[in-house]
Fold each of these.
Amino acid sequence: MKKGIIILAAATLGLAACKQEKKGAGGLLYTIHHSAGNEKIKEGDIVKMNFIQKNDKDSVLSSTFDSETPAVFPAQKKMYAGDMNDVLTLFGEGDSATFKVNLDTMAFHSKQPKPEQFKNDKYITFTVKIEKVVKKKAGEADSTFNKRAQEFFQADYKASSEKKKAAEPGKLKAYLEDTKLATKTTASGLHYVIENPGSAEKPALGDTVLIDYTGRVTKKGKDGKYKIFDTSDEKLAKAENEFKPGKPYGPQKMPVGGTIPGFTEALQLIGKGGKIKVIIPSNLGYGEQGAPQVGIMPFSPIAFDLEIKDIIKGKPATSAPVTAAPVKK
């Protein structure tokens, strides 16, 4: 019994030691949460990595976990001890860790001031998961290695995209059930609820509409809410901490046919004074690429609340509508 206790205690101490923060060169701090025991990353390896980037205030600046788009890149030669490329050599495939790159050290070696968003910070912090490392085989030509890596990641991306595409109907169903929306569906797959039909005359391709709108993602955040990715409502933007200084708020002019297909279709379902809720599937929205910069994931439906304030008649459209974003970023 005592021997078993000793072994358990030793294993516990070993696990704790693995998770202790360690110091590296150049003011680097790092904690290895899990080590898979694989060969460490070397210069020239091709790495697939998920990460969360934070500042000293623990604010998330970016996350590939949220955007569902892991970073794929070649491991480069380090510029100085403790830089981003140096720290990667501490990890191997399957490892997870948190590391803090010293910004003062970075500024000293780059001869550049700290980036504006980090001017009051000492570190830039990354929590990473090394998903895959493709290594060059002994004696393998560079061209052969690069082709092999390219083929692997192309196949990996295709498999990932197909998985996300297959999951979209479940995402849409979950959103409708959670919001308790009893929607109707158009032939194209657009889900909608007309709250006010507005005037009898509806906008047509070539017209311009003056609208109020709010767009949300259909995946709940950690706060249990559906995050706004764009809105014309300044009060709502401030209330939900999504206010963007310099952005024009209030009713916006928008050409009918100059937006993503689902948005264009939604505008033509109501008249002046009309209000509508729509859930736009990805094939009528941002497709397999999504718009990660505003939180729209690949193969993800999005939701809009729209109100048409006015319709400005124009010349009938003679060409197919473009598929730009509802509001440029």
Amino acid sequence: MRKRNRAKVSTTLVVLLMGFSLVACGSSAPALQPSVNNTKETSPAPEQKPEERDVIEAEGILTGWADPHTVEIRVKDKAMSFQVGEDMQKLLDDIDDEDSVRFKYVEKAVDASTKQLVLTGITKIASEDGDKTGTGAGNIVTSDRAKTSELEVTVEGITEKRPVTLAQAKGYSLYIFEPMAFDAKDHELTMKIDPRYKVEIEKLPSDFNLDYLKMDAKEELSEVGEVKELTPEQLSNGPMKDARLFMMSQNGKKTQYFIVKELDGNGFIFHIDAPVGEPSEGFLPMVYASVNSIMNE
């Protein structure tokens, strides 16, 4: 009895051990087979930033804006254009055209043959003797031109020579008549008795685009009335016969002008407001004579 029972027990143990072995083999089998989707996933390589050279520092003269995102700086008599981001535009708010500046920029490669200059910092260089700009009689001027002179002007059909005084702003000078006042900081010429009669003078960069300016003029003048452009033939016998662009608009209250004149490679825009009234008879003839006397400094 005891041997038989032992045999049964032994047999049972053998069966159980064989069962465990089979189960173990069954559970380990998948580990020996490579998974169908066992491809190792790799993270994409980080995007490479465009190659940038080191920051370059330089000094020059701020010429002006070529467009809302491009400013021109003259470095050693060479005009250079720089892209300006929104953060840089704030730094330029307190810097006027023709101010001396110290600035930083980087070169970005657009393609194999083109580089883009991007402004990264700019500060105004204070002049040692301060800003010596004239606003009319009695003000200090730095130009070599005579401080007083005479200009010919035609008012109400009468042509005569009238005394004028030299005034200077950053980058240019001009002669003004006694009834006029000139604000060199704001580049604004006005009638003393009524400052609504005014001329805003804007100096352009050397690479200004006349077609773009014409679009700007249409947008600016359309707020007043229908925009008209005078042809060279229409200007040929007038005081602004050498204007590169002469556009105007008017309504019952005023006439507004957008005039572009070029002098020695530099362009100027004259934004003129001439309200309807008695002073308007002498205002425009004096304005034309004054702006035609402008010289680069």
